[in-house]
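User: Can you write out an input/output pair for a complex, sequences first and structure second?

Assistant: Here is one pair. Inputs:
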Amino acid sequence: MTTRACRRDVTIVGAGPVGIVLAILLAQRGYEVDVYEGHPDPRVNPRPGGRSINLTLAERGWQGLRAAGLEDVIKAMSLPLRGRMIHAADGELRFHPYTPAGDSIYSVPRSELTKRLLDFAEEYPEVSIRFGHHCRAVDVEACTVSIVTSGGERIDARPSRVLAADGAFSSVRRSLLRNPGFSFYQRLSPISYRELRVPPTAAGEFAFAPHALHLWPRGEGMIVGFPNLDRSFTISVFMPTQGETSFASLSDRRTLEAFMFTSCGDLLAHMDDVAHDFFNGTPAPLLSSGCAPWVHGGWLALIGDAAHTLVPFLGQGLNAGLEDCRTLAECLDDANDRWDKALAVFEDERLANGEAVIGLAEKHFDELARGARDPLFLVRRVIEERLHAIAPDRFVPLYTMVAFGSRPYREIAAVRARQEALLDRLMSVPDIGDRLHDEEIWRLARSELNALETVDESLVSDLEEALPLGALHPVATVT
Amino acid sequence: MTTRACRRDVTIVGAGPVGIVLAILLAQRGYEVDVYEGHPDPRVNPRPGGRSINLTLAERGWQGLRAAGLEDVIKAMSLPLRGRMIHAADGELRFHPYTPAGDSIYSVPRSELTKRLLDFAEEYPEVSIRFGHHCRAVDVEACTVSIVTSGGERIDARPSRVLAADGAFSSVRRSLLRNPGFSFYQRLSPISYRELRVPPTAAGEFAFAPHALHLWPRGEGMIVGFPNLDRSFTISVFMPTQGETSFASLSDRRTLEAFMFTSCGDLLAHMDDVAHDFFNGTPAPLLSSGCAPWVHGGWLALIGDAAHTLVPFLGQGLNAGLEDCRTLAECLDDANDRWDKALAVFEDERLANGEAVIGLAEKHFDELARGARDPLFLVRRVIEERLHAIAPDRFVPLYTMVAFGSRPYREIAAVRARQEALLDRLMSVPDIGDRLHDEEIWRLARSELNALETVDESLVSDLEEALPLGALHPVATVT
């Protein structure tokens, strides 16, 4: 082992939730951790107009925070959501619990979470966070990291290890793009988003029920409301960038307000000035991206959104990132802090899971959008719910597997592919739409369900051969 | 139809072979064509150290040139290659004809081809080529193209239509990367390349047989020699960037010459100063890339390498690009010059074929590399050759389908997948390596061959569902 390999310093690029939790996990293992963050300290200079969608923490996220000893404190600032509240255009509400057992995901504003995590990280003398330090590039051969401070100073650092947690538009990843053997893809969705806010009511109460994720599904678009601890709601508007009902078509105050009035009047009634927020800045397209390898030169690894960027509809972006953190810490423990080995095992475990969840998130959105267009798809959903009712343990909904457990994403993708195949077979029954009350159909379904075996490793590898890593359309658009 | 749609001007970005042939095809249809090329005129200022691999023209390339009336003149400056000449380390030679019928591909240096095509294009008064005009970006919404001249002047053009033929590192494509709905991927191979030259012998003759593509397969790397009309050979060295025998390990004159002496002495004997060319510049990694959509805003289309960049081992890069040109011209004819319709049909026909050939080229290289590592893979190749011998029309080699016909690449990919499945089944016979003379094996093979039906459209769509567009590993490395 070289002297370098014995040194106990680690550099983390990016002080978002993933970078900070990673810093804490490493400090707890006795590492000296330098964190470089291009933006100013959000506790001192809050970022105006940040674009992040509200975060939801699910089981994988909690496991990561638990490993860092942070579960309770973060739970205390989060709001549990027990299901989805669907808002119809006429104001009718339907509540769908996530699970019969009452499992919850938790809503937390990204900015609040980040600030709280920063406070905790700074309690560790091993952690030093440098704000206004933008990492421009890495040189894998020369083992250097180029940093530019907000004052324009240039620093060339030579850290022993670098973990790049610098997000969906990672500068570290960009500087790897011309390296032999490096692959990268990105898929920009035709769907963009804007964030709005619903304040507490005049009486100081939540405008909508606080125990639910609120959904206004509207054609190709969708509005999502997340409750916050201060009794406000963060509202994410997802819509096509171009087209009949789109960010381009809702181009002035009057058109926007007319659209909101007819399609989600109950939401409009609670907003101060929808047009102000809506037109303040440009909508940003949703994005998937992935790359390989994640580990470079044995000393540099991509992690979190820098390694795998998800569209938000499964709510797994941060959860997957925190699962990365926990896995890396476990790999270090298992390898007795031999980083080359730990990073190799980390990549081996996580890259395929990252690819799987990128694909699951895209497919989930495809299904949401398809449901809006295709009446037959609603039949498919009815069948799906019925199958779950018939065999709750054998036919588990995708969202339940993803959010309320920590089964590896690639296994979930394999299970889901089997479910889809079963649904395809049932949907191919002639006139299936008219036969949902026909007991013969459900006898057929029961026999098929009995054939759905537990997914084992061999099935996963079979499926990965048929559907190789990243098979989820590098060139297909997200919808 | 707007006035704009009636205008007959077209802008082409890039004066490589694809851009120029496109300009000629459009001029022949009465369009006014402006071609912008960032580099200077190669007939006046030859580019030193250009990186392009020698080009080979096959059936699809000739069809494109034939459509432009250029087949004969280009054939006259190309050398027909009837097969591959394999050079062993001890100098032993084996010649493999491409087909029993004696079909040839044609070798032509890229620079000579480009210069000749430029001369032809300039015979059309409709074509105006502006060298030293670099297209920096396009704005799809504003319908503008930003150009910077070599003198630093900035021009904002508003052409009616733009065809971006600006190659593997397309600036037009780069400026689309943040557009909603646009997807892009690139895979850099761990294999890089350098170009060298073997001059004619002292007697003015070819150093090696001129009717063949010369191959020195060496472990993970490979050297390829292309004869030129001036009796020189262009030599492309493909090797891992890093590793035991790699561009990194052959880092000085002595190591390089020792390697060449022991592994390809017959080649070294004909070179003036291998080290000079080898160390003059850095090796460039091979690259695949793809994107979607190709058509933007109804007025801008990507074409050739800008739309689909291939690794070179099937020799299809230019051929696919010229097939694009011919297809676009036919689409315009069929649509009576309604560009919106023509571009939509063009994308519909070509995008899936572009994806298919990107994948075929990568898989072909995988197979070449795997053959060097895996003795069982040689057994597979023997079986493959035998299957072709048993059923020449039913089991056609991949290279024959790709190079000596114009069957759509996506159909070829589907046929190839069936062939691979058959090979997998035969390879799964226990002890297959020892049983190649066992007649029972070939009886089995014959019955399987009889089951290999003609590939029809339904098979293609089945396969594309199993293996969606671009399924060929956005995150897997090329080897």
